[in-house]
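Researcher: Let's do a round of design. I'm pasting the structure tokens now; please hold your answer until I've finished.
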């Protein structure tokens, strides 16, 4: 068999080898099984590459903002309102840009555009070649605009900035007026049996209704003690306070309290007062407020004696979270007679509060002073109580 030229035996590209028959000169394709498989694969690859070459590749685009310092910021423009443009970028997250610094911007998706003139259009936005102006493509045609002519932009179908502002104000007002209820129960005591039988008990209940504007506070407290079935302490008091904010710092208040003390020979001490207060510190973990007002006090004793007097009402309430595991509280009320300042009552309570693992349960260690400058005959002026109470705090679930 004669040797054929290389060009006759194999043709480059995607075709099979070709051979001429020596007798008839008719070209015959000699295809072996392995060559058939390789040729099929090669042919398929050629077709795929051709299709890929003919398929248009979509361009990935995004909104763009051009600024006066020559910067270009690419991302997704959310809105423009109040002189601020908000754009979300992949690298830096959400950015807020002053509208005065923007020379032009482009938006791929249709947006609602509100102009300073009061007109509104919907469309996409492109920028000029020199990035000095923007072109709004709307149903009414193309319009060249500058950022200074635009009052606001927002997504089609979304709320305008005015509506968003009204909704935010309404939500804030609703939140401010929505009350949060809190109930706090304190209890402590001791009991001893043997040569001497002693029972000591102390308890307090506080119920508060609080909003951002006001505070309503109910409280009830009692102390009891006996030695060998003989009472040595038997005292109860309860009251209500109301505070309402006039400004962020100033507030007005009113309060009323009723008290009974068997060993002070006191059947009833009724106190009512009203005035103004001020927050010197108003933080979540640190609060100090004082109050000043005028009041009236009525006292009735089991001897038949009664006292009625106008008084000055001075008070201080302090709270400081020293650490996540301890809180310091201090409350003082000073109420002198309006005409005789040496006739007064002074009540002070100082405590440290330690939360347990469950924050609703706490341990309260405290010291309470009650001073009466003119006690009934046979009683001390100062009454001091040391206490250790377990506190259970229950809050409104919505808090």
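Researcher: That's everything. Go ahead.
Model: Designed sequence:
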């Amino acid at each position: 068999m004669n040797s054929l030229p290389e060009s006759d035996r194999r043709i480059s590209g995607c075709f099979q080898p070709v051979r001429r028959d020596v007798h008839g000169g008719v070209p015959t394709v000699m295809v072996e099984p392995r060559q058939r498989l390789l040729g099929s694969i090669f042919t398929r690859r050629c077709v795929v590459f051709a299709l890929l070459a003919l398929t248009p590749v979509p361009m990935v685009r995004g909104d763009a903002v051009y600024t006066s310092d020559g910067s270009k910021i690419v991302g997704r423009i959310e809105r423009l309102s109040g002189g601020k443009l908000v754009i979300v970028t992949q690298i830096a997250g959400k950015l807020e840009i002053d509208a005065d610094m923007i020379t032009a911007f482009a938006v791929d998706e249709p947006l609602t555009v509100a102009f300073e003139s009061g007109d509104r259009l919907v469309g996409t936005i492109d920028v000029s070649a020199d990035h000095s102006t923007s072109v709004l493509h709307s149903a009414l045609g193309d319009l060249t605009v500058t950022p200074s002519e635009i009052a606001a932009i927002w997504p089609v179908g979304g709320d305008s900035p005015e509506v968003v502002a009204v909704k935010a104000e309404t939500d804030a007002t609703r939140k401010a007026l929505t009350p949060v209820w809190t109930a706090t129960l304190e209890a402590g005591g001791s009991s001893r049996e043997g040569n001497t039988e002693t029972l000591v008990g102390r308890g307090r209940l506080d119920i508060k209704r609080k909003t951002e504007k006001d505070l309503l506070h109910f409280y009830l407290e009692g102390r009891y003690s006996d030695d060998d079935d003989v009472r040595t302490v038997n005292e109860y008091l309860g009251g209500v306070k109301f505070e309402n904010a006039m400004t962020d710092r100033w507030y007005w208040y009113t309060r009323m309290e009723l008290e009974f003390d068997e060993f002070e020979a006191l059947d009833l001490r009724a106190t009512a007062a009203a005035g103004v207060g001020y927050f010197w510190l108003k933080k979540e973990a640190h609060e100090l407020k004082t109050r000043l007002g005028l009041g009236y006090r009525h006292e009735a004793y089991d001897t038949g004696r009664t006292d009625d007097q106008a008084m000055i009402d001075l008070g201080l309430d302090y709270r400081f979270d020293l650490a996540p595991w301890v809180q310091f509280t201090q409350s003082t009320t000073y109420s002198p007679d309006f005409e005789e300042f040496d006739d007064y009552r002074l009540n002070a309570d100082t405590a440290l509060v330690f939360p347990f693992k469950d924050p609703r349960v706490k341990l309260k260690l405290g010291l309470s002073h009650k001073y009466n400058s003119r006690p009934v005959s046979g009683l001390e002026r100062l009454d001091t109580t040391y206490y250790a109470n377990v506190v259970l705090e229950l809050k409104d679930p919505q808090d």
